[in-house]
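Loading example: each entry is read as two labelled lines plus one structure line.
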Amino acid sequence: MDTSKRILKLVTPWMIESGPEGDVVVSSRVRLARNIKDRSFPAHCSTTQKKEIREEIKKAIDKDKFNFINLEDISSLERENMMESHVLSPQIIADPEGRGVAIAKDQLSSVMINEEDHLRIQTIAPGLVLKEAMQRASQLDDELEQSLDIAFDENFGYLTAWPTNLGTGLRVSAMVHLPGLSMTNNLPRLLGAVNQLGMAVRGIYGEGTEALGNLYQISNQRSLGSTEQEFAKDLETAVTHVIGEERKIREALKENSKYFLEDKVYRSLGVLKEARLISTGEALALLSDVRLGIDLGIIDPKLKPKVQALMQIIRPAHLQKYMGNTLEPEMRDYYRATVIREELAKEG
Amino acid sequence: MLCERCNKNPATVHLKTYVNGIMTEKHLCQSCAKETGQLQLWNLGNPLSSFFETLLGTMELKPTLWSAKCRMCNLSFDQFRRGGQLGCPACYTEFREELNPIIRRIQGDVVHRGKVPKRAGGTLSIKRKIEQLRNKLNEAVSLEEYEKAAEIRDEIKRLEKEAGGEL
């Protein structure tokens, strides 16, 4: 029943770990937007200027703790793979020239270089651990500030390319798994309420991406006028409310629709174990059901790390890396089904 | 305020439009705004840049402003209006007055209260501390704790000296 070594090599440890409130919260993330004084923002820089800025930042980064990558030096498959792991954004991989990333060896911190801002400091951790993720991001920010002249204004705070990130440059977010609210059609109502609390709800890869596998990202919308701690506290309040609602629905489903729920979970597991063709969207939806089954005690909890790893492995770039070669889109559904079948068969 | 179309839900979408110099205001709830197509403009192209264009369209701005340029990076205010992104950090100083109402609309505030960087923050940390101490001083005086007040006053003087001529 152990998660196979082949899978472990391709996913980062935080993806298969379960943190606090892990039945609903998959991960917590923090991002700080920073820019260098007297330099144009990346969208207004030439490639040469972007490369100069990248070199300047490279010098400021601790070589013992971080691996530094120029994005044009690696294949598009590698870049997509990093996007699927939430290290890179869809925006940065669209135009890699002159851009870069520094990834901490523990893979829990990273810095995107020349995305929309010169620096995007990012930290991630499993479960609801906003405070810890904030501390790590702020510490990395302090280290970088020692050798970089950061653009800061006494009134506006940290200066960013978009006025929507101005002030703290902070975006704090939680990735939540909401199958109960989703299958009972309670999601629009709840997400509307979260919106009214000043929080944004997005799909799994951030801005403008769709929600797959009942996974949603909840994050702060404003970044100016409160302290970082206050923004994080507000988010935690909103997320805690969502967790409570999701748990209530799950309990009600267990109480009133036990057989319906068991049937749904086992059917999904059955399809995953036997299908010959499966799309990313369908696989994520079925894995979401199985994950719910585990969190409700219907399925053995020992299967959870494997389900979490599969949710990552079946995404297009990860799948191709797992198979060891590039796959034509029409062949991916076949190999995706094969990988899932083989991995779940190892359960015995 | 209730939605003026259905009179049932609270109005969360407030639209100001200028047609031939006449301003009309509409206050709708989310679903009525969607039904009447008022929310569709959010789905065209880059959601943020169209947001800025819409936002700026509702504000009264001097016509001469559009051609004003940032002396550091040469970005014009019109370019900002169309794209939504500033050109460089100095744009915030160059267009400070014009940006203030826009930032207030987006962020609900124009004053940063969060982290201050050690090097780039200048004397802001000290200024904030002095402000806190002044509040404490007033409190001490009103409670007639004069000994404590004197201590706080000395600390303020010391900090003001530390900040130098910048205060």
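Chain B has a mean pLDDT of 78.
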